[in-house]
Amino acid sequence: MKFKIFVVLILVLLLWSISSAQVMPADADPALWARALKLHKRSIIVDGHNDIPSPMVDEDFDLATDTVGKFHKDGDPFHTDLARMKTGGVTGEFFSIYVSGDTLKTGGSMRRAMDLIDATYREAEKHPQQLTMCTTSNEIRRAKKAGKICVLMGIEGGYAIENSLYALRDFYRLGVRYMTLTHNVSHDWADAHRGEVKNNGLSDFGREVVREMNRLGMLVDISHVSEKVMNDVLDVTRAPIIASHSGARGVNDHTRNVSDAVLRRVAQNGGVMMINFYPSFLDARTNTEENERAERLRPQIQALREQFKDDREGYNQAERRLLEANPIFIADYKRIVDHIDHMKKVAGIDIVGIGSDYDGVPFLPAGMNGMEDLVLVTYEMLRRGYTDKEVQKVLGENFLRAFAKAEEFSRNRHISAGGSLTKFKK
C-alpha cells in the first residue's frame, strides 16, 4: 500500500514538473536549451512593466489562480499568475499602477492609483511565501537568495499626482519607485508620444517633477512620452532614467519606441531601455495589419460592446472569437532580440533590459503565452552568441545598476530638499 502511494506521488510530481516547465521550441538545440534553462534559473530577472493590478481591481483576479499544468493560450485569462511567475523565473516584477488618461476628463486619477496600490499590497500579503514587497535594489537581490518574487510598483501616467509634489512624495513613501510621465495623452506638464502638443515637451513644472524624482530616488520613466520630453528629461536629470516598456525605433519606426539619438543619450546617462514585448511595437507588419483589422472590425466590435455591456467575460470571449476568425501576422519572440541587438549595436549592451507589458497588451509574440515563456528570450540571445554575462545584464543586472545609482544619488542629496513648487502653476 505504501509503495503504491509512493508511486502515485512520484507520478504526480513528474506530471507537475513536465506541465509547469517551459516548452522547448521545435527548432531549438537541446544542449543550448538546457544551458539557457540553467542560466535563466540562476539569473536575477527584473521585468519593468506588468499591468496585472488592473484586473486585480476590476475583475477581482487572484494571482493564485491555478494554471499549473494547463497554461492557457496567449492572454487566456491573463499572462500573469503565481505559477507563471515561478516558471518564468522572475525575481522582480514591476506592477503597473496604470491610470487611464480618461481621468483627465472624469477626475479620480489619484484615487485610481491608490486603489491599485492597495490591491498590490493585499496580493503580496495573501501570498507571503511567494511574494515580497520591495523598494530597493538590495531587496531584489535578497529576494533572489530567499527564493521569493519581489513585487515593485511604478505609476503609469504622471497625471496621477494631480500636479502636486506633495502627492509625488507620498506615492514614493507608499513604495512607488518609478513614474511614467504620461500615458497616451498629453497633460498639464508633459506631452505624450501621440496627440496634442501642449507644452513643447516638459513644462517648467514638469522639470521640477523630474528634479524631485531624482531627489527622492524615484526613477523617471520615458515610455509613452514624446521625443521632445525624452530629451528634456535627459537635459534635467542627474540620475539614471529608464524606459520601462519601449522598443527601438531603428527596428520599428513607431512613436512608442526610442530613437537611436535618444538611446545614445541614455547610455551616457547610465539608464536602461526595457524592451516591450507587444508585437505591434516590435514589428511594422504586425502594427499595420493590426490597425487595418481594427478599422475593418470596428462596427462588429461596437456591436459586441452593446450586446455584452453588462457581461465583461461574455464580451472578452466574443471578441477573442472574432479576432481568431480574422487572423493577422504576429511577429515571433525572436523579434524581441532583434531590438536587443539594435540597442546593443547603437548604445552598448549596458543600456538594455526587459519590460514585457504583460497584461497590458492584447497579445504576445508568436511562441509566447505568458510569463512562463521568458526563457525564450534567454535562449535566443544565447543562440545569437551573447555571453552569459551579457544575457544576465539584459535580464536584470543593467536595471539593478541603474536603480542602485538612482538610490545613491538620492542618498547624496545633490539637489535641494523638498522642491520649490508644490502645486502646478500656469
Assembly type of the chains comes to single chain
How many domains would you count in the coordinates? 2
The parts where pLDDT drops under 50 for at least 5 residues are: 1-20, 414-426
Beta strand count: 9
Structural class: alpha/beta
Largest sheet: 6 strands, parallel
Approximate shape: globular
Output the keywords:
426 residues; alpha/beta; TIM Barrel; six-stranded parallel beta sheet; three-stranded parallel beta sheet; disordered N terminus; disordered C terminus
Topology, element by element:
Layout: H1 2-20, H2 30-42, E1 46-50, H3 53-58, H4 82-88, E2 92-98, H5 103-106, H6 109-126, E3 131-133, H7 137-146, E4 149-156, H8 165-173, E5 176-180, H9 204-216, E6 219-221, H10 227-236, E7 242-243, H11 260-269, E8 272-275, H12 279-282, H13 284-296, H14 298-307, H15 312-324, H16 334-347, E9 352-354, H17 375-383, H18 388-412
Parallel strand pairs: 1-2, 2-4, 3-4, 4-5, 5-6, 7-8, 8-9
Helix pairs in contact: 2-17, 8-9, 10-11
Describe the structure.
- By secondary structure, this protein is α/β, with parallel strands linked by helices.
- The chain folds into two domains: 28-283 and 331-414, Alpha-Beta Barrel (TIM Barrel); 285-330, no CATH class.
- It has 18 helices and nine strands.
- The protein has helices spanning 2-20, 30-42, 53-58, 82-88, 103-106, 109-126, 137-146, 165-173, 204-216, 227-236, 260-269, 279-282, 284-296, 298-307, 312-324, 334-347, 375-383, 388-412, and strands at 46-50, 92-98, 131-133, 149-156, 176-180, 219-221, 242-243, 272-275, 352-354.
- Strands 1, 2, 3, 4, 5 and 6 form a six-stranded parallel β-sheet that branches.
- Strand 3 (131-133), helix 7 (137-146) and strand 4 (149-156) form a beta-alpha-beta unit.
- It is globular, with a radius of gyration of 21 Å.
- The N and C termini lie far apart (80 Å).
- The model is unreliable at 1-20 and 414-426 (pLDDT under 50).
